[in-house]
Amino acid sequence: MRIYDIIKKKRDGHSLSKEEIDFFVKGYTVGDIPDYQMSALLMAVFLRGMTHEETVALTMAMARSGETVDLSAVDGPKADKHSTGGVGDKTTLIVAPIVAACGVKVAKMSGKGLGHTGGTVDKLESIEGYKTSISRERFIEIANKVGLSVIGQSGNLAPADKKIYALRDVTATVESLPLIVSSIMSKKIAVGADCIALDVKAGSGSFCKTREEAANLAKELVAVGKGAGKSVCALITDMDIPLGYAIGNSLEVIEALEVLSGGGPRDLQEVSLALAASMLQLALKNSYEACLAVAQEAIRSGKAKERLLAMVKEHGGRTDILANIGLFPRAAYTTEIRSAQEGYITHMNTESLGVASLLLGAGRIKKEDSIDYLAGITLCKKTGDYVRQGDVLAILHASDPVKFREAQATFIHALDFGTCRPVPAPLIIDRIC
Ligand code: URA
């Protein structure tokens, strides 16, 4: 088999066989195929697309290109979730304990935040002492003991995706549906769960800016997940507005605890419960309504919060600050942003709000950047709220007050004002099963 012939075949619009796909994924991962040939192939895929069968084969080849996680030692049903990324998305901290409290295990690998989007690993690491890097044996032991364990992604998970993604980034081939789907699903499949609920975000804070883009991605992710033998469903949820009021790692942990304590913002409650119900439905095969009711009861009874605290304890984290949120460390400096305008907030550019939080120190521009766990934004007003001149729009938190100026300017530019109240958008736009 020659890579030249595979490039030519795809260039001319033909489908590749599973063997050809395995050949180029393996060859590129080990370094036998050079970047210039892989670039040509990626551009051919970008222009010609891939069939469903080709996308499944590419996903499986990338999933098997490195380490895979065997969760067979975790007893009983297991479920996972994946979000395509957004601003203020702390749902894993709420959903995983709910699902565990309902008898379905969650042994999950999560990512770090990059750019304007946050990552669960950073939120967990904002809890003093929490270890996101533990042995595989200990990960399984904690999942069996408390029903959930969340750790960081292993460095050797789907290495083919890591190399291909870096090449896509510099060859203008990122925006290709088969390449995005195989990239996301290969990592999910490599980490072992049989039931996967996907949260595909749509709007200005997501990489899918429109609902149509999100729907196309969600349909393909579900189809490819099923093609790979997994039980998969997807929610399309609104990311044209941040989820909840807290943006930034420790602030988001505190807000997640509020929801697990029966309070917190309504939008965050709704999306978290819908995702938990979807995971339970996939794992237990009960109706969605029945799963939603048990998820609600897990919060009401306090069992979900208890599961989170048990997991944090097993991972070495301080549970006293979770039991008493007042003890949670706070940033040394805060400043209020007051409105210079009067009217309704008609839109928030949610990506820019994520960037404002990043500028305060809460996120990273490059993978290797360090972050400030205490930095971030507490929103006081959101889209649809009426604001008078001088009202506080948000509170910025930082360890270095020099960071306030640029973050404040970015925040202000992200908001549009008008005289009419905008029509509220649905939070859960669609479910694809
Ligand atoms: N997220 C991924 O992991 N891969 C993509 O290609 C796009 C988003």
Give an account of the 3D structure:
47% of the residues lie in helices and 15% in strands. The protein is of the alpha/beta class and 433 residues long. It folds into three domains: 47 residues, Up-down Bundle (Transferase, Pyrimidine Nucleoside Phosphorylase, Chain A, domain 3), CATH 1.20.970.10; 208 residues, 3-Layer(aba) Sandwich (Pyrimidine Nucleoside Phosphorylase, Chain A, domain 2); 86 residues, Pyrimidine nucleoside phosphorylase-like, C-terminal domain (Aldehyde Oxidoreductase, domain 3, Alpha-Beta Complex), CATH 3.90.1170. It has a four-stranded mixed beta sheet with strand order 1-4-5-13, with helices on both faces. The chain has a four-stranded antiparallel beta sheet with strand order 6-9-11-7, with helices on both faces. The chain has a three-stranded antiparallel beta sheet with strand order 10-8-12. Helix 9 packs across helix 10 and helix 16 runs antiparallel to helix 17. It is globular, with a radius of gyration of 22 Å. The model has no long low-confidence stretch (mean pLDDT 96). Uracil binds next to helix 9.
Hetero compounds: uracil
- Rounded mean pLDDT score: 96
Q: Separation of termini?
A: 38 Å
Estimated share of beta-strand residues: 15-25%
Classify the helix fraction into a percent range. Answer: 40-55%
Shape: globular
Radius of gyration, in angstroms, nearest whole number: 22 Å
**CATH fold-type name of the largest domain:** Pyrimidine Nucleoside Phosphorylase, Chain A, domain 2
Please indicate the count of domains.
3
CATH superfamily of the largest domain: Nucleoside phosphorylase/phosphoribosyltransferase catalytic domain
Please tally the β strands and state the result. 13
What is the CATH level 1 assignment of the largest domain?
A: Alpha Beta
Strand count, sense and barrel status of the largest sheet are: 4 strands, mixed
Order of helices and strands: HHHHEHEHHEHHEHEEHHHHHEEHEEEHEE
Structural class determined from secondary elements: alpha/beta
Oligomer status: single chain
Low-confidence stretches: none
The number of helical elements comes to 17
In the CATH classification, which architecture of the largest domain applies?
3-Layer(aba) Sandwich
How would you write the strand order of the largest sheet?
1-4-5-13
